[in-house]
Amino acid sequence: MYYYHVAHKPPFSKGSVYEGWGASHYADLWYMFDHLGQGSWRWRTADGKLADVMSSYWVNFAKSGNPNGAGLPSWPEFKSRDNSVLYFNDPTYTDGVPNLKTLEVFDTVYAQIRGTPFGSR
Fold first, then answer.
1. What is the arithmetic mean of pLDDT over 20-31?
2. Taking CA 74 as the corner, what is the angle to CA 43 and CA 37, rounded to the nearest 5 degrees?
3. H/E segment holding residue 100
4. Which residue of 5, 12, 25, 79 is 20 to 30 Å from 90, comparing CA positions?
């Protein structure tokens, strides 16, 4: 299992329906499929670089089940809450689990529904 967190904020323009969205799960679609041209924003050099990195990880994963590849920052497998998470930003880096306290609250609330607490698999 590979865990990622989108930290990069797309250049959504003022007045667009996406204004103020910041880094979000939906926003990562332009990058992971490397189709920045489908958005009418003023994409920066960092956006193009991130689209190349993200789409490379996705292609590698589809081919082999492992997103890592030549020229990409190492994306460690996620096995427990103590493992590193890949942060998609400029630059892409690894760090601890984001919002761990919030995830722990959800674990408590949904323990009976989900059965296994986050990070204990």
1. 82
2. 20
3. helix 100-114
4. 79
d(CA 10, CA 74): 23
Cα(62)–Cα(57) distance, integer angstroms = 9
- The full length of the chain comes to 121
- The torsion angles phi and psi of 86, rounded to 5 degrees, stand at -85, 125
Annotate 27-94 with DSSP letters as a single string: THHHHHTT-GGGS-S---HHHHHHHHHHHHHHHHHHHHS----TTS---PPP-STTS-EEEESSS-EE
Give tens-digit pLDDT for 79-112. Answer: 876 778 999 999 999 999 888 888 888 878 877 6
Q: Which long-range contacts (CB under 8 A, 24 or more apart) does 45-54 make?
A: 46/8, 46/90, 47/8, 47/10, 47/11, 49/90, 50/8, 50/88, 50/89, 50/90, 50/92, 53/88, 53/92, 54/28, 54/88
